[in-house]
# Entry
Amino acid sequence: MLKEDGIGLLAKDRVLPNLSTPLYEGMFIKVIRVRTKVVTSKASLPSKTIIRRTKSILKGKRKIIRAGKEGIL
# Structure
């Protein structure tokens, strides 16, 4: 009946009642269109600071071994 009325269904669309349900006059049929949308976004990640304590550096002093840089998630 849907094809006769020019209503096409896509793979993810749903029909209520089920397509195998017998039809009768005056019956309401609900077509639910299901769409999938993929959204991508970029977010910057702050660099992580790793602190390692050694005996070769005086207490309270810091030495940068390798500077961090922001990444993208």
